[in-house]
Amino acid sequence: MLRNGLEPWHLLLVGLVVILVFGSKKLPDTARALGKSMRILKSEAKAMKEEGAPAAPAEPPAPAD
After folding, report:
1. Is the distance from CB of 27 to CB of 19 less than 8 angstroms?
2. At 44, phi and psi to the nearest 5?
3. Angle at Cα 16 formed by Cα 8 and Cα 41, nearest 5°?
4. What is the dihedral of CA 31, 18, 6, 36, to 10 degrees?
5. Domain ranges in the chain?
6. Are 22 and 30 in contact (CB under 8 A)?
7. Four-point Cα dihedral 25, 26, 27, 31, nearest 10
8. Where would you find this protein in the cell (predicted)?
9. Mean pLDDT (whole number) for 7-21
10. Is the model's pLDDT at 54 over the cut of 80?
């Protein structure tokens, strides 16, 4: 049924439907909001990854002479 998967004309059709549904005036605002959300998600995921990683072991103090 979907032997060839996603072809270029499928993407063109999806893009056309998106433009018809949302209108060309709202698309830049929607894309800007999506980009901002993706940046926030990426920074939060990075923070969670750093939080879950074990801290680097501290160096033992040098012996006093």
Report:
1. yes
2. -65, -40
3. 80
4. 10
5. 24-49
6. yes
7. 140
8. Cell membrane
9. 87
10. no
Helix (H) / strand (E) containing 32 = helix 27-52
pTM (predicted TM-score): 0.49
What pLDDT is attached to residue 39? 96
20: confidence class by pLDDT, cuts 50, 70, 90: confident
Mean pLDDT of the chain: 81
The pair of structure tokens assigned to 65 is 């002479």
Q: At which residue do the structure tokens 């993407």 appear?
A: 11
Half-sphere exposure of 59 (CA within 13 A, CB side): 3
- Can you give the pLDDT at residue 43? 95
Q: Which two tokens stand for residue 23?
A: 């209108």
How many Å apart are CA 14 and CA 22, to the nearest integer?
12
**Could you tell me the two tokens for 45?**
């995921």
